[in-house]
Design a protein that fits this description.
This protein is α+β, with helices and mostly antiparallel strands and 461 residues long. The protein folds into four domains: 114 residues, Beta-Lactamase (2-Layer Sandwich), CATH 3.30.450; 97 residues, Beta-Lactamase (2-Layer Sandwich), CATH 3.30.450.20; 89 residues; 138 residues, Heat Shock Protein 90, CATH 3.30.565.10. The protein is built from 16 helices and 15 strands. The strands form three sheets. A five-stranded antiparallel beta sheet has the order 2-1-5-4-3, with helices on both faces. It has a five-stranded antiparallel beta sheet with strand order 7-6-10-9-8, with helices on both faces. Strands 11-12-13-15-14 form a five-stranded mixed beta sheet, with helices on one face.
Length: 461
């Protein structure tokens, strides 16, 4: 009764493979009724390739005198599909030691087999993906012992994957690098957060990422590490930074050369053309006293034109190179710029200063003045603003200059893109000049909401 109702497939067979008894579970597993199955032999229900192997092992078992054995076999269902089974056999011997019958217990493990094969397949896929990656990738425990590795990581140290498994990763690195790496790993273990950093080893540069593997209790149990060699990218980045430094240096030197030329032209305007115009006006006024009354109108027109030329010359002199900047300093020069905007362009203008001293070298003062002048010019030309406000203040060893308007504003991302494409040269020169000095330019704006530009300038010690 137990034999018939047992939930595992059971069969009793002769040593030559003829089935004597089978239970319902085995019939259901293989798709036969009892009568059909009893008409079969063990060879009929086992997959041919496995039966050959089974026969060889069964012969060895008989020779060795073993009474029980376990084999993993493929069985053939009645409809032809394959069933994986775990076959346990027990030999029931007679008093002379001959095995008259064999009791088979067959457990269906098809589902488990498929799960195992899928796991193996997944592992192979994961391994293939890892090995296809040129980045060094490996897994360590919290002590630094290598648990898993791809080929690229092992090859960096002239070893195979099997050779690096079980080694301490720190033992593979120079002591100084190992200490840094250990500190990074300990930081990730403490925080439970991923960490990214760059480092240099023997002239090669790497971009490294450490990812914690956390268990159900929230503890870091292992760490996955990716190290990508970025030597060429790093060198290109350094070359770009060097180029940008040279460009800022060139922009600064151009600004200084331009300012010297501006001063020369302004001096010539003032000392030559400006004075000649003033002398010409004086002579016209003297001439007016000695000519006939009928010529007064013409001379007055000439004097009026002369006044306008003198005024325009003085305005041009201030615009080219402000004598206020040289004589009275940056605060007075910027205040004059702001007042001039209001007077000439009808824009409400405001200026305030905190009254603190802001010592700067001449070249710094010139670059800052030109930067503010460029920003104010942009407001006049492009912002369609009703008002502009310029503020100056000091915080510690830095001076701050804020230029705000209530104009149409613009998209800052488009402005940055235009700068990268070589457009917006005025703003680029402002930014380059300030960065060369060790300062910076911050721009806040959006369409319809005006613009705020903040200049940060380092002061002289």
């Amino acid at each position: 009764m137990v034999f018939k109702r047992h939930h595992v497939g059971l069969a009793i067979a002769t040593p030559d493979g003829h089935l004597c008894r089978v239970n319902a579970s085995l019939c259901q597993m293989l798709g036969y009724n009892e009568e059909e199955l009893l008409a079969k032999t063990v060879e009929d229900i086992i997959y041919p390739e496995d039966f050959v192997e089974n026969l060889e092992q069964f012969s060895r078992i008989l020779e060795e005198g073993t009474e029980a054995f376990v084999l993993e076999e493929r069985f053939v269902h009645k409809d032809g599909h394959i069933i994986w089974g775990l076959l346990a056999g027990t030999l029931m011997r007679d008093p002379d030691g001959e095995p008259p019958i064999v009791v088979y217990q067959i457990r269906d493990v098809t589902e488990h087999k498929h799960i195992w094969e899928e796991a193996l397949r997944s592992e192979k896929i994961a391994r293939a993906i890892l090995d296809a990656n040129n980045d060094s990738e490996f897994l360590i425990d919290t002590k630094g012992t290598i648990i898993a590795s791809n080929k690229a990581f092992a090859a960096r140290f002239g070893k195979s994957v099997d050779e690096v498994i079980g080694l301490c990763v720190y033992s593979l690195l120079p002591s100084e690098v190992a200490e840094r790496r250990k500190a990074y790993v300990e930081k990730v273990i403490r925080s439970g957060e991923p960490l990214r950093f760059e480092d240099e080893r023997q002239g090669m540069y790497f971009d490294n990422n450490i990812y914690p593997i956390i268990d159900d209790e929230g503890e870091v149990k292992a760490l996955a590490i990716n190290a990508r060699e970025i030597t060429e990218a790093y060198k290109s980045k350094q070359e770009l930074l060097d180029y940008q430094t040279q460009l800022r240096d060139l922009a600064s030197r151009l600004a200084m050369a331009e300012e010297r030329e501006r001063r020369r032209i302004a001096k010539d305007l003032h000392d030559s053309i400006g004075q000649n115009l003033v002398l010409s006006k004086i002579r016209l006024e003297m001439l007016r006293r000695s000519v006939d009354y009928s010529l007064f109108g013409s001379i007055d027109e000439l004097i009026e034109l002369m006044d306008k030329a003198i005024h325009d010359t003085r305005s041009l002199t201030f615009e080219i190179s402000s004598p206020i900047l040289c004589d009275l300093g940056l605060k007075a020069a910027i205040e004059h710029l702001v007042e001039n905007v209001g007077n000439q362009h009808g824009i409400s203008s405001y200026f305030n200063d905190d009254g603190e001293t802001k010592p700067m070298d001449d070249d710094v003062r010139i670059i800052v003045f030109r930067a503010v002048q460029e920003l104010i010019t942009n407001v006049v030309r492009h912002a369609h603003a009703n008002s502009i406000k310029v503020s100056m203040w000091r915080e510690g060893s830095f001076a701050y200059i804020s230029v705000e308007d209530d104009g149409i504003g613009f998209d800052v991302s488009e402005y940055k893109s235009a700068m990268l494409n070589g457009e917006c040269f005025g703003l680029f020169s402002v930014s380059a000049g300030l960065e060369y000095l060790g300062g910076c330019v911050e721009v806040e704006s959006s369409p319809g909401h005006g613009t705020h530009v903040l200049l940060t300038v380092p002061l002289k010690d």
